[in-house]
Amino acid sequence: MKSILNIGQSKLIFVENFILGTTYRSIDSLYKKDQGKVAFTAPSNIALVKYWGKRPVQLPENASLSFTLSECRTETSITYKRRKDKGVGFSIAFLFEGEPKLSFEPKIHTFFDRIAPYCLFLNDFEFIINSKNTFPHSSGIASSASGMSALAMCLVEIENELGGSLSAEERIEKASFLARLGSGSACRSIEGPITIWGKHQKIKGSSDEFAVPFEHEIASVFKNYQDTVLLIDKGEKQVSSTVGHNLMHGHPFAKTRFEQANANLDKLSSVLQNGDIAQFIEIVESEALTLHAMMMTSLPYFILMKPNTLEMINSIWNYRKETGVPVCFTLDAGANVHVLYPEKDKEAVLAFIEAELAEKCQNRQYICDYLGIGIKKM
Ligand code: DP6
Fold first, then answer.
1. Which of 185, 214, 243 is the last residue of a domain?
2. Helix (H, G, I), strand (E, B) or coil at 142
3. Is residue 227 within a helix (H) or strand (E), and if so which, with residue range?
4. 198-233 pLDDT, tens per residue?
5. Are residues 205 and 234 in the same domain?
6. Which protein residue has the closest C-alpha to ligand 1 atom 6?
7. 238 confidence band (pLDDT: 50, 70, 90)
8. Are 199 and 182 in contact (CB under 8 A)?
9. 12-23 pLDDT per residue, tens
10. Does residue 152 share a domain with residue 280?
11. Averaged pLDDT, 318-333
12. Which atom of ligand 1 is nearest to the CA of 58?
């Protein structure tokens, strides 16, 4: 963590202060700029091995692995300006698609509070954050991963403009670290096409604090892998992820689940390299159903799948059996179904989706996405 605390010449002071846990010294005189603007676009990601269960602060109980997506993105810009009067608290205005969105501000303030020890400039500037998503409103697609990762990267870039001394690689790591403090899964959206978050014995460099890219060459069948998101329920989530994660404390199957996830990650790591698609399907579908099984067996228990979720899963299984096309599904903490398949089967699978699954989507809506490389400067 030392590396990502550095800013300009003051790095030693800050690292020391961090270790001692004392108040930070002002760095006013060191800023290279008084104002500026940065902008990044960050994608969503879909976990194949799921993160479900965390301990303070935002540390995962098991390692998770995800595909970084391309099309489902958040675009965020931040305009920053030196504050004349340094009042109490942060000065943040949040706009969503150009319009003030007051309901979001408490969330951003909580995020700023959490990351303040690692971003020492936050109190010295006023920020106008402008954000928009490329996917439809309330599509049930979580915007927290793309939103928090874009925001985190913007802040790291601002720190850099102000005189930070981190290398490009360290800035990426820091963005993932900060994004995690906003929303756990967000740390996996900074890079692509596959990232791993959570300390795992067999994954070199893996950490509970930030995500790392999958270090091996992936089999050609997984390159450009497709993810078509079938939008089933566009309503507000019944249970927030944070509440769901907390229900893993004292959950009767928690220990076994965390061990299973780590074992699945190990197996999946080999599969991604050797291209064994039958095993891929088995791990991915089992992970999705186990995630929902954890929700159904917690106290209180809940079911996020809808009747159409189950119908679609059955249709996918039938189609796979009849045609031999290696299509499979995964789920996140909601009713939507992510249909995963190799790029070479795109035409056939999209025809199947149009013919059999689209009618079960809300307003026939689905989103065609595929593997991507992560964050981009705008
Ligand atoms: C089911 O990252 O949304 O999508 O850390 O509380 O913000 P918080 O939770 P979040 O949880 C994601 C859970 C999941 C699985 C996954 O993405 O690994």
1. 214
2. coil
3. strand 226-230
4. 999 999 999 999 999 999 999 999 999 999 999 998
5. no
6. 242
7. confident
8. no
9. 333 333 333 333
10. no
11. 97
12. 5
Q: What separation in angstroms does the CA of 294 have from each of 220, 274, 290, 306, 329?
A: 33, 30, 6, 16, 18
Decide: residue 31, CB within 10 A, 0-12 exposed, 13-18 middle, 19+ buried: middle
Ligand 1 pocket by Cβ (under 6 Å): 47, 50-52, 58, 64, 142, 144, 183-185, 241-242, 245, 291, 332-333
Last residue in a domain, options 154, 186, 214: 214
Say how many Å lie between the CA of residue 333 and the centre of ligand 1: 8
Range of the domain at 110: 30-214
DSSP for residue 256: H
163 and 40 within one domain: yes
* Mean pLDDT score across all residues of the chain: 91
| Residues sharing a CB contact under 8 Å with residue 21, sequence separation 6 or more, in sequence order | none
Residue linked to tokens 């800035």: 171
Q: Structural domain tally of the chain?
A: 2
Q: pTM of this prediction?
A: 0.93
Residues 279 and 302 placed together within one structural domain of the fold: yes
pLDDT band at 135 (very low <50, low <70, confident <90, very high): confident
Nearest CA to ligand 1 atom 5: 184
Look at residue 17 in the predicted model and tell me its pLDDT.
36
Domain membership flag for residue 101: yes
The verdict on 148 and 231 lying in the same domain is no
Distance 244 CA to ligand 1 centre (A): 9
Phi–psi pair at 178, nearest 5 degrees: -70, -40
